[in-house]
Amino acid sequence: MAIKNKKLPKHILVVRLSAMGDVAMLPHAIRALKAAYPDVKVTVATRRLFEPFFEGLDVSFLPVEKREYDGWKNIRDLSRKMRALGIDAFADTHGVWRTIFVRIWLWLHGIRVAWIRKGRIEKWFRVGYCNSNVAPLKHSVIRYCDVFRDLGFVFPDPSPALKQERPNPMGKKEGVWIGFAPFSAHQGKTYPKGLREEAVRLLAEKYDRVFIHSGGGKEAEFALAMEREYPNVTAVNGKVGGLGEEMNLISNLDCVVSMDSLVMHLASLMATPVVSVWGATHPKLGFLGYGCNPEGVLQEEIKCRPCSTYGNKKCKYGDYHCIHAITPRMIVERVERILHK
C-alpha cells in the first residue's frame, strides 16, 4: 500500500541510457511505482529508440543520444537541460560515471538523488560458481524499484506484466506461432550456427509459423536464408517498423525462444511465454526476463558457469561448451512443455 507523504518528490527524472535489455526491464519498475503513486510525474531519459518500451505508462521523455553525454561539456549541458524540466528528484538507474557526474551536479543544485546498487561484488563472487544450490541474487527490476524507494516511495515489487491485445503486424494469425531469437551481442550468449539451423528446422516442422528475430548484417543473412529454405519461416528484420511493431508481433506469438538478450525482455513486457537459452551467463545473477516462468530456462550446470556477469569474456576453454550443451531437440521439447502449461 502506498504511503501518503507530502514531502515525496512530485516530478522524478529516471535515467537509463543503455543497454537495450537493461532499459527494457525498467518499465516493470515504473509500472509498480505509478500503480502506487499515479499522481507522481515521471520523465524517462533514454534513447528515442527505446520509447516504445514504456508505452501505456503515462510517462514523459527526455530523448538522450550518445553524443549528448560524451565528454564533460556535454554532460554539463545535459544536466542543465534536465534541471530545466522542473524536476525535484533524479533516479539514476544506470549507475555509470556519466550519470554519476549528472547526479552530483543536480544534487549540488538542491535536487534529491538516488542511485542503483548493482551488487557488483556479489555478482563477481558468483562468477564460476552459480548452480542449483545457490540462492538467486536480487533481480535487476527490484534494484530499479529500490532506487525509487530510496527517494521515499513505498510500494510492493511489481507483478508480472499482463497480456494485452495488440495489433498483429503479420496479418491474421492461424495456428501456433513461435519466435526464435538466437543472437546476442556476445558469442557466449549466441546460439551456434549449426545448432540454430537445426533448431529452425525442428521448429518449422512442428509449428505453423516461425519468426526469426535478428539484427542486421550476418544475423539478417541467416534469417533470410532460413526464410528461403522453409516456407513457414519469416525473417522479422526489415518487415516490422521498429521496436514498437516487433513488440506487437511478440505479443501475438504463442512462445518465444530467446537467448539472454533483448527479445527475452520484450517478451516479458508483452507477457508472452519464453524458453530462454543460457550459456556463458546465468539467470540467478538477476537478468532473467521479469515474470518469465523459470521452467522455461534451459541451461547446463557446468562448473565454470557463469564465466562473466554479462557474457563479454572469452571462454577459457575456447569452445563455449556451456551453450553447445543445449541441443535443438531440448529447445523444441521445452517449447512443447511451456505451451501446454
Radius of gyration from the CA trace?
21 Å
Helix content: 25-40%
What is the CA–CA distance across the termini? Answer: 32 Å
Q: Please list the strands of the largest sheet in the order they lie side by side.
A: 8-7-6-9-10-11
Features:
single chain; 341 residues; alpha/beta; 6-stranded parallel beta sheet; 5-stranded parallel beta sheet; 11 helices; 35% helix; globular
Topology:
Elements: E1 11-15, H1 20-36, E2 41-46, E3 60-63, H2 72-83, E4 89-92, H3 97-108, E5 112-115, H4 120-126, H5 140-150, E6 177-181, H6 193-206, E7 209-212, H7 217-229, E8 233-235, H8 243-251, E9 255-259, H9 262-269, E10 274-277, E11 297-298, H10 321-324, H11 328-339
Structural account:
The chain has 341 residues and is an alpha/beta fold. Helix 1 links the parallel strand 1 and strand 2. The longest helix has 17 residues, at 20-36. It contains 11 helices and 11 strands.
Task: Describe what is shown at a glance.
With 341 residues, the protein is α/β, with parallel strands linked by helices.
